[in-house]
Amino acid sequence: MQQRSKCSGPDARPTLVADPSLGVVTMKVQRVLVVDDEDFARRVTSEMIRGAGFIVDEACNGCDALKLARNQCYAAVVVDLFMPGMNGTDFVGALRSVLPGVRPIVVSGYLSDESRTSLKHLDLTACLAKPLNKEQLLAAVVSSTRHAPPPTVA
Q1: Which domains does the chain have, with CATH numbers?
Q2: How far apart are CA 63 and CA 49, in angstroms?
Q3: 65 Cβ neighbours under 8 A, 6+ residues apart
Q4: For the whole model, what pTM was predicted?
Q5: Are 145 and 9 contacting, i.e. CB atoms less than 8 angstroms apart?
């Protein structure tokens, strides 16, 4: 049985939080998960996203990424399509039961028209070719965070 994340919606979604005792309002920062088996690609992708003001967690495979998603809320997920073990398509399917409102961003250095067509049923935010264009990546991350459901208030 798949375990859902501890949040009902991405806790990382930007929200204003008021603290009446201090008389301040703060904004919570969005959290993004980057999943890629290639260390260099994962680090570069993470740095581009981090440089735009997001908190970024990294995983080198789908299994580790699912463990993170069960214990942390993400407003966006960037995943490599071709990874050993659990590939990006299988990961996106498994992620749906953990973070059902997140529309992932799939990236790959081996995108063909056929692979793009086969991904249409996954309801992705975007499918981007490597090497990644920073502006396209950040636009996809922002779009994904806007489509993430707001967290539920307890």
Answers
A1: 16-147 (3.40.50.2300)
A2: 22
A3: 33, 35, 59, 77, 79, 91, 95
A4: 0.80
A5: no
End-to-end CA distance of the chain: 25
Task: Return the amino acid letter for 18.
Answer: A
Query: What is the C-alpha separation between 105 and 116, in angstroms, rounded?
Result: 12
Residue 102 DSSP one-character state: -
Tokens standing for residue 118: 């086969």
pLDDT tens track for 72-107: 999 999 999 999 999 999 999 999 999 998 999 999
Per-position b or e across 120-153, b if 16+ CB within 10 A of its CB: eebebbbbbebebeeeebbebbeebbeebeebee
Cis bond leading into 131, ω under 30°? Answer: yes
